[in-house]
Amino acid sequence: MPFPFLFLTLSLILGICISDILSLPLASSALGLSASLVLAWLFFALKKNKPCLVFILAACLFLGSGMFAVFNNRYEQNGLRRLPQNTYGDFYGTLYLSPSPGLDRDILYLRVKKVVMLNKEELVSGNLRISVPHSAEFASPLDYVAGDKLKVSAQIVPAREYRNFAEPFSRMYLKALLIHNLAATKSRLLVEKTGNGSRGSLLRLMSILRQRCQRKIEQNFAAAQNPQVLSSEGAIFETLILGGRGRLSAEDTTALQKTGLFHLFAISGAHIGIISFFIFLLLKSLRVPTRLSYGLLIIILIFYSFLVEGRASVLRAAIMSIAFLLGKLFWKDVHLINTISLSAFVLLLFNPFQLFDLGFELTYAATFSIILFFPKFMAHLPKLPLKASETFAMSLSAQLGVLPFIATSFHRIIFSGLILNFIGIPLVGIIMAAGYIFLPISFMMPALARPLAAGIHFLIKVFMASTHVLDGAAFLSYRIPTPPLPVVIGYFVFLLLFFLPDRFKKFKPAVFLGFAVCFGLLIFYPFSSASKDLKVTFIDVGQGDSILVEFPGRKKMLIDGGGLPIGTFDIGENVVSPFLWSKGIKTIDYLVLSHAHPDHLNGLVAVANNFRIGEFWETTSPPGDQKYVQLKNSLVSVPQHRIFRGYARREGDVRMEVLSPKERPSLTSSPDNDQSLVLRLSYGSTSFLLTADIGVNTEQEILDGGGDIRSRVFKSPHHGSNFSSSKPFLGAVAPEIIVISVGRGAPFGLPHPEIIDRYRQTDASIYRTDLHGAVEISSNGRGLKVRTAVRE
């Protein structure tokens, strides 16, 4: 068997998946493993090879399920995970990684040993990720290294989870990193160093070297307008050389993702490949024997892995390369699939949670696809200069393997990378080669480092400019909804069937046709997102509003997009858009802005860029609001309407009417809660009153209008504020269901206890996005059905 580790690894993976789905007890896995090993040995002794192989594979399956059960039990029962959310404490422990700098905060990774909380000391062991915000008083980065002992006064905070009928991404992400809890501190003054680690520790020495390299990058790549801040080019250079993407700007990240060049920064196989290529060139020029070159390269890759502190993406690629090089050292013939499978087997044994990490999936999908398809493509491509044929074959092979993963996780189809890789890969190779020359020179000859840094700065500018070369060709990179699972499975099945033995040649046309169908369904997504009922979903966007209306048929309306007033996290891109894609939505027929406060407006910018928009509704425009300007720029070709009280429209059997605000002489005004758009939807005997952030004054104006405002579903005004939901207004609405859109741990004590008591007096059912997650209410024109993301 040319690659036995492939089947052993697949069995291990199957065991991990089974244990994750069925939650198998450890005892059953241990019993199955023991029995399988005994039977495998018995058949081996009897020289029955096939039954022996079957039981070896069964042993690997039970090993995988058992390892997952052990890790999962240990992780879930960790004392640090059980600490109450939103409570403060003093955490004592040791840094196990260097501080990770970010755009607006730094991150500390603390291996906790002791916690003092509510004047009670408790011995707790676990990994804690702590965010430390930047401030004007402390512009310099945190001056700590791995191994330092710290005391940090911080608050346990929940993971940034938005519960919208899908497993929160952060849960498995933190598991894959073996981080047991998250915390935040208000100031770096609350971080105190209590001792040093061992001076001879290799991790400490590498942490010191890493941070000194970071300082050299910061000194030579400072922003022109603020020398204390790393420039955009510096952040890209830091990512390429040292790993970690904490200081990449949102704009640069989006440009790299959109063009398909993000793999040069994210997967990190490129880092290892480029390093190995240049090291081999150097050793070959020095006439170093081949086998000795393999040994030296293994040492260099181990050193690099320590320098980037074992970051998962780099570590995966390094282990894959080291496994291959060790094979070349000890055996004449090494099968790549065997060594790659061995590396995956080892990684999953040390941390089975990695199987569910997107980076792990992308790394191995791309690598296996290159191994399988690169030779086939090269056999049919002409020999072009400058390794152009090899670059195209490599890009196309990797694309085949990762396309469904990118479509599912990033909701993007990217073909532009096949073209831009001709520019990107050589440029990144030159930048990295220059970077590893720059670092030692910056220590030994700082004056010489300056012009070298300027040259690197120019190359990075050229590289980032290349990401915009194909901006006008939208068909080369576009967003799609989540592909159906059968299409993804069919894609991979037919892809693998291309390797049927020659005796099955007659089936090749059918295989090609099957793959073409799955490929077409994947990239074009022709599936309908029709609804037979009127569905109104109050999306969990934290502290803010975003409401999806699905009319009977195919038309959709989105009212507001949530948003954060500060920070780099984009609710529209990371919460609202994925929720819409998960429902198979590609077009928003009515995009509505109730009023231009950040928690309603900011998320709409990404939505306007990610979806086809039919028309845009608003009332007044805010003067000089940057996010509003971005939104309007994205809607230049979209029909736009200003709507006020008295406006009414029908969408099929659903009547939409605007109850507020009144039309004003000036169409430009500062955002005002009382000028929010109030919309009433009527369908048969059911109705929904969507009140945005209005207060009691507007409520009284609506009452004075004299119209019928009775509604079976009532969206609580202003997140349950006590300046809204007056008793007369609530009495006139007479709701059966009240929905409060509010974030967990919301500021200002929302929803207000007095309002909750008032709602309870109505006997209406109360749903809250902070407790129930997304709330979906369906109407067939007669009755109402409620579904929540979090079941009570």
Written description of the protein model:
The mean pLDDT is about 90. About 45% of the residues lie in helices and about 15% in strands. The chain has about 800 residues and is of the alpha/beta class. Strands 15-14-13-12-11-10-23-24 form an eight-stranded mixed sheet, with helices on one face. Strands 16-17-18-19-20-21-22 form a seven-stranded mixed sheet. Strands 1-3-4-6-5 form a five-stranded mixed β-barrel. Among the domains are: about 5-75, no CATH class; about 90-195; about 355-410, no CATH class; about 485-525, no CATH class; about 535-790, Ribonuclease Z/Hydroxyacylglutathione hydrolase-like (Metallo-beta-lactamase, Chain A), CATH 3.60.15.10.
Uncertain parts: none
Calculate the terminal CA-CA distance, rounded to whole Å. Answer: 53 Å
CATH topology of one domain: Metallo-beta-lactamase, Chain A
Strand neighbour order, sheet with most strands? 15-14-13-12-11-10-23-24
| Most strands sheet | 8 strands, mixed
* Percent range of helical residues: 40-55%
The CATH superfamily of one domain bears the name Ribonuclease Z/Hydroxyacylglutathione hydrolase-like
Which class do the helix and strand fractions yield?
Answer: alpha/beta
Number of strands: 24
**Under the CATH scheme, which class of one domain?**
Alpha Beta
* Count of DSSP H/I helices: 25
